[in-house]
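Record type: ASSEMBLY
Status: queued
Input:
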Amino acid sequence: MSGFRIALMQTRPVLGELEVNLSLMRELAAPHAADLFVYPELATTGYALTDFANARAQAEEPAGGSGLEFLQELAEEKSAAVIAGLPLHERGALFNASALLRPGMAPVFYRKLHLFYREKDLFTPGDRPPEVWEWRGLKLGMMICYDWVYPETARIMAHDGADLIVHPANLVLSHCQRAMVTRSLENGVFTATVNRIGEERYPGEDPLVFTGGSQVTTPRGELTVSLPVAETAVRVVEIDPAQARGKSLTTRNHLFADRRADIYGDPLPDRDG
Amino acid sequence: MSGFRIALMQTRPVLGELEVNLSLMRELAAPHAADLFVYPELATTGYALTDFANARAQAEEPAGGSGLEFLQELAEEKSAAVIAGLPLHERGALFNASALLRPGMAPVFYRKLHLFYREKDLFTPGDRPPEVWEWRGLKLGMMICYDWVYPETARIMAHDGADLIVHPANLVLSHCQRAMVTRSLENGVFTATVNRIGEERYPGEDPLVFTGGSQVTTPRGELTVSLPVAETAVRVVEIDPAQARGKSLTTRNHLFADRRADIYGDPLPDRDG
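Status: finished
Output:
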């Protein structure tokens, strides 16, 4: 199988500046070719949103919105899939979501299951499991930032057949990048963590310093690339999705067959049980 | 709360030499004081056992055996808990087990859930979840070596209240030590991985080189100590069990309360559900 190219788009969004951010996203993508372009969490709006009405005004609706239309155009233009974090307004609630856009296809979404800190003031936690979608023969799922702490998140997607877990993030702590190596190993999948850089501040609080270091990890626990911690950067990484499909650690050990569902259940008990 | 002292006993067992190994275990412990002495996986017998009758002859029975009696004496002598990996013969089967001995108390066991490579020829996989026991105010659970790959193992014990996950190992691959930092972080627990050193060989195969590097990780993802990769070594590490009890990553994030059991179930669905 030929390689699948992931473009890690490590940006510095400007808080509350939707149009500026969308332009920067396109500009940064312009010189690059890839099968998938990945942007950070809340890439269209910035992170430290606090006011519901204001956030809603910048949010996308599942059926569309200026950001989604823009990203769909970008997907068509680049003939590639695009994943970006954005606020999603749906059923009267705001979700910290990521959207997957593919040329000629309707957008699909993941809604963050585990909200971090003051995100809880604004967003509703996701109300359904992460799903797996296909693009150019590769199966991918999405999770967002703090979801990394919960091994169940990646587990569900890996058992649904994901080759790659795409992980838009706005990280401020230092442990995630190393932990994603473990998420790759324990599930036999690739992961692509795309973090932002720069600083933002909730009113009256210390600044949040986002830590970059976007990366791709392999099913064998290798870190293929690590972007700078404080610069806007793009890197295209080519992976071989077939490496995520063997699941054999030794000739006698298959990652999934060795799982003890008889003891601790299935990753999604309601569906699998 | 005063500190709880864990002695990491990184040994080099001699294959098939029960009496020699027990003597070495005591000798190595002699100069040290601790609340808990931890030895590697299959510390009493060595690792590359292949013949059932031979392994059974060196195995312990739940009600006793020369190794268990010895370890119980060691526990009384040191006025400490002792954990060691050993083969356990029970109900006609052999388990790759670890035993917890405490002064004045009956031994309790964990039977390895996930068997690695040729262990499958000899051992029966454990048939019950890991449990949590108490010693001097600290709650601990046990898992063995390759169990580290399965996040469910540590998860079950953490949710049963474990402060410390004790992890006897005979590691030959290189990823475990870093992954245990993730196990600590995601569960807010201490882990103590005690690995062996030296080489063994299954007949007709390349040698297995055990990689030492015994360590303790903290609920905050710190590595407190890392023993040499190729030497017998002892290190006593003092931990504060209270650090494993807050489970708060931020003022708004509680590791367990943020878990989405409504989506992916409880760590032990049959018991909790």
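Annotation: Helices of chain A lie at 18-29, 52-58, 66-78, 119-122, 151-159, 176-187, 261-264, 269-272.
Annotation: Chain A has a mean pLDDT of 96.
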